[in-house]
Specification:
The structure holds two protein chains of two kinds. Chain A is built from six helices and one strand, in the order αβααααα. Chain A is mainly α. Chain B is 73% helix and 1% strand. The longest helix of chain B has 29 residues. Classes of the chains: A mainly alpha, B mainly alpha.
Chain lengths: 134, 167
């Protein structure tokens, strides 16, 4: 048994309240069915992304940009036939050709797409050889 | 499933009701409030997983479980931890934090057994019979330790301010 003074002291001690404890870290259990559904949804989304990427990128396509120098070389070495007539290409022809006439001939023949079969002559070539007297 | 849910709710109720006193008790044993908090969480995590079983006195069982967790941990570490006077243990009346510090220092100065009994009786609100159950001693021994502890606390706390002053 405690005497009154001890009881009074004990009451004073009880005025000091223990600090609150931190909340209990409880992991909320996710139901198994819901967990399976989430996993299936994630898997489906991943597969869809892969399929879309495969469809967007054609197989074997080189995605790297072509070097500039190579493009320039190709343009310079390409035959005159089939090239679009531009001021630049005309200037190049005029600079390279021995005469203005040959340069003009070259320009005129730029659109010739294919070789004639053996034994046949181009009408333009025949007319070009003839001397017209006006 | 229903039993598991019911068990979880019971454990959460017990935690809300007793966790503050359990952490204080653990802090009084270890001197380290963070470690005390860990020990209490460890006990409750185990209870949530395994259930509280057939414990007749849930409160005494919880204090005993926390005590065992701390003793097992102390055995693993094989070293004594001095009481840390840095972290507060109490909400002092009238926000008198100087009084709170004095109380902690006075508790820290007590013998380990006396400190346990004091915390269990004053703030855990356990009877001496329950304390005897938790500590594995007779109720009379628990009561005797408490009276010695109370006398020492009064002596320490009232030394400077007089016996009728607040701790």
């Amino acid at each position: 048994m405690l005497n009154p003074e001890e009881e009074q002291f004990e009451a004073r001690l009880k005025e000091f309240r223990p600090l609150r404890a931190e909340p209990l870290p409880v992991e909320r259990a996710v139901p198994a069915r819901r967990r399976r559904f989430v996993l299936a949804a994630c898997a489906a989304a991943a597969i869809a992304i892969v399929v879309v990427l495969l469809l967007k990128i054609p197989y074997g396509r080189d995605l790297s940009p072509a070097p500039r120098r190579a493009v320039k070389q190709t343009a310079a070495e390409a035959p005159a036939y089939g090239r679009p007539l531009t001021i630049r290409s005309a200037n190049e022809l005029l600079a390279d050709a021995p005469s203005v006439k040959s340069a003009l001939d070259e320009l005129a023949l730029q659109g010739r797409p294919k070789q004639l079969p053996p034994g046949k002559q181009s009408a333009l070539a025949v007319l070009g050889k003839e001397d017209f007297k006006l | 499933m229903k039993n598991t849910r019911s068990n979880g709710e019971t454990i959460e109720t017990l935690y809300r009701r007793h966790s503050s006193a359990l952490v204080l008790f653990a802090a009084a044993m270890t001197g380290d409030r963070a470690r005390a908090q860990d020990a209490v969480h460890q006990v409750f995590a185990r209870l949530l997983a395994q259930g509280i079983g057939q414990a007749t006195n849930a409160k005494a069982y919880l204090f005993a479980s926390v005590r065992n967790a701390i003793l097992n941990d102390a055995k693993a570490r094989r070293r004594e931890v001095a009481l840390d006077a840095g972290a507060a243990w109490f909400e002092p009346p009238g926000r008198d934090y100087a009084a709170e510090l004095r109380l902690r220092q006075a508790l820290a100065a007590l013998d380990g057994g006396q400190r346990e009994v004091t915390v269990l009786h004053v703030w855990g609100e356990l009877t001496f019979a329950e304390i005897g159950e938790v500590l594995g001693v007779s109720p009379n021994t628990a009561a005797s330790r408490y009276r010695y502890a109370l006398a020492r606390l009064r002596e320490t706390l009232c030394a400077k301010e007089g016996c009728h002053a607040e701790p």
